[in-house]
Amino acid sequence: MSLKTLLAAAAALSFAAPAFAEIEIKDAYARAAMPTAKAGAAFMHIVNTGTEDDRLVAAASDIAKKTELHTHIAKGDGIMQMVEVEDGFPVPAGGMHMLSRGGDHVMFMGLTGPMNDGESVTVTLTFEKAGDLTVEIPVDLKRQDAEMKMDP
Questions:
Q1: Could you tell me which of 33, 36, 151 has the C-alpha nearest to residue 101?
Q2: Which of 67, 20, 72 is nearest to 46 (CA)?
Q3: Which end of the chain has fewer CB within 10 Å, C or N?
Q4: Among 28, 59, 30, 33, which Cα is nearest to 44's?
């Protein structure tokens, strides 16, 4: 095999690989309302350092029977309803999308065990272009959203 063929093959592989380095997860944490809760959630900043828009389209974790992308919508009279977002969340090129309490988040339904403060949960985030990204998210039952760092 010639050097030219090897270089062409290496270039093709580099273009075919998902852009993992272009999506970064920052300041993530997970929580449940109480140790016996049947549901929990994860919050984070999703930063896209790339030049192409991307979209978080799914999440999976063995901590729950079902893991979905959710948001809250106003129903009027101060009532908020949590709903699944089947289309996922856009993450603009050079920008970020924040998952936070009272807004967009990863929802764990039917927890398979307790979410203990100080432990972590493994979550696989699936992006439209970057593919799967598995992250370890610390469980922090004491944290309030105001404590989230705003810098990407």
A1: 33
A2: 20
A3: N
A4: 28
CB distance 41 to 106 below 8 Å: yes
Please count the other Cβ atoms lying within 10 Å of the Cβ belonging to residue 148: 18
CA distances from 99 to 15, 56, 148 (A): 30, 11, 10
Q: Which two tokens stand for residue 116?
A: 């203990």
Q: What's the confidence (pLDDT) of residue 145? A: 60
Residue 13 backbone dihedrals phi, psi, to 5 degrees: -65, -40
Is residue 5 within 8 Å of residue 112, measured between CB atoms?
Answer: no
- Retrieve residue 63's tokens: 């901590």
Q: What is the pTM of this model?
A: 0.80
Instruction: Label the pairing between strands 54-60 and 89-91.
Output: antiparallel
- Give residue 110's region: left, alpha or beta (phi > 0; psi -120 to 50): left
Q: Give the three-state DSSP class for 102.
A: coil
